[in-house]
Amino acid sequence: MHPQPHRYALQLFREQPELKEGRIPNDRFVNLLTKVAATEGKLAVEVETSSATDSRHSDKGPYWSQADGPDLALNPGELKILSYTVTTASGDWLGRHFVLLKSLHGEQVRVLDPTRPFKDYQYALQFRGDGATPKTTVILDNLSRNDENEPVYELNTVFTIKIVAAQADRNDPALATVDQIKTEIDLLAKELQAENKLTSPKEWRQRSARFGLPGLDLPTSIGGSDWSAEQMLEVFRHAGRYNLNLRDVVGGAHGRPAIKLQTDFAKTAVRDLIAGRAYFAVAITEEGAGTHTKNIQSRAIRDANGFRLTGSKLWNARLRQATHVVLYVLAANGKHGKQTAFLLPINHPGLKIVDRYAHGLTGNSFGGLEFDQMHVGTEHLIGEDGDGGDLFEEHFLYWRLMQSAAAIGCGERALEIMAERIRNREAFGGPIGRFTHLQQPIGEQLTKLRMALALSREAARYFDQENYDAAEPLVNGIKAEGVEFALEACDAAMRAHGALGYSRVVDLGDRVRDLMGLRIADGTTDVMRMTVVRDAYGHDLWQMAIETDTPHPN
């Protein structure tokens, strides 16, 4: 929990020189880890060790299997520290070094060295032994060097650290960190993958309520955690790594506008949302009113004790899965272009779902609504009659930012899959990664995604400062380019897999289709780019593109 944990670790090395010299035995290192974690009562940890049979740092084991070697798999909620002994080429033993395992790819590991935390270290695993014990000794071969005088790094011990949060902490999302929520997402993803339910937003919402995911960005006054946009950005990004359907399962999503409604009906709906029992859809687009929302024809008229709503909606997602819908129609006050928003149960009398079918985002349905003279009481009205437009803009500024973060995570994961593919796929006598034209897209698209992420974080800071005027052009630009960058990354990864990439064995084709849908949903790429031009260079260009001289009837 230290704000600069690597600096804290280095401070410990300075205070206890035997650590830096690598003379500490396993039991003392485990005690040190436990002590550091428990500083100020923050964390409890369990530490398991597995050593080489000839380790001078452990005389009682446990030892790893000489037939199978050490377990270097990384699991959610775990850290692994590798300890290796350093011996000169002439055989002089220099001491022991500790690094954090970052990833395992086949027989290659990437590690973080606490003395140089920003440098990338990669090692190939070399196994030595004989007969039934082929993995008695494990050597870490430095891939960045080829020097016969290079010291020998021999893996000595693997420390597996499991963070054991107090039960009270696990049940109180207000005490959670972004990394802890990410870990919970990893664990739940593994659980749902085993049940073939990974792409079910309803399952995610129901089960993730145990660690507070549905209420992260809702106010604490109603049972949420009131997380900032900066925090939420990282959670959406992480969810997008698994599947873009998960963009709907983080936070209040389209239920966020409902917190402005103080009726008993709305309060119950929001409580159910936070508890994972409710799932909200939004319906604003119509057959003749997509991006041009002022073309909406659905309307409200005043009734004796409420409103009568007539019209239809189309191209709306998640209606079959939703328990509630935020419905936008023309305001009853008669003011030109003004809209009004209502929160309705999806089974509200007179509300009919019409099914259509989409190419991607298959965890949710796709379709529309029909309603004719449907009575709606005032308890369903969000804000005042005519407030819908402002409500929509406020909600979708936040929503576009988070959708872009999910897209970035989706693209980042695709590049990881691509890197693994070109590392291991053999063709024409060797791994295809030796063809540098396959490496070029990874470098290009990763850089683009990192640029989009940096801009997203800047926009999130503006949003948290309530400087929405500064945030808006950034968000619109990110919604356009972030999604396009992610789509390029997923397309490159799919093509690098050949026919396999076009199959359902890997999910890269799904990622491409999902992102193609997201480049349209919640603000099309073309229109988002036009708004960037408008904000940077003036409204005359916007007016030139979309506005006419036709007078309004009102």
Descriptive key words:
disordered C terminus, 14 helices, four-stranded mixed β-sheet, alpha+beta, six-stranded antiparallel β-barrel, 17 strands, 554 residues
Structural summary, described in words:
This protein has 554 residues and is of the alpha+beta class. Helix content is 38%, strand content 24%. The strands form four sheets. The protein has a six-stranded antiparallel barrel. Strands 8-11-12-15 form a four-stranded mixed sheet, with helices on one face. The protein has a four-stranded antiparallel sheet with strand order 9-10-14-13, with no helix packed on it. Strand 11 and strand 12 form a beta hairpin. Helix 5 crosses helix 6 and helix 7 (229-242) crosses helix 9. The longest helix is centred in the C-terminal third of the chain and has 37 residues, at 388-424. Residues 550-554 have low confidence and may be disordered.
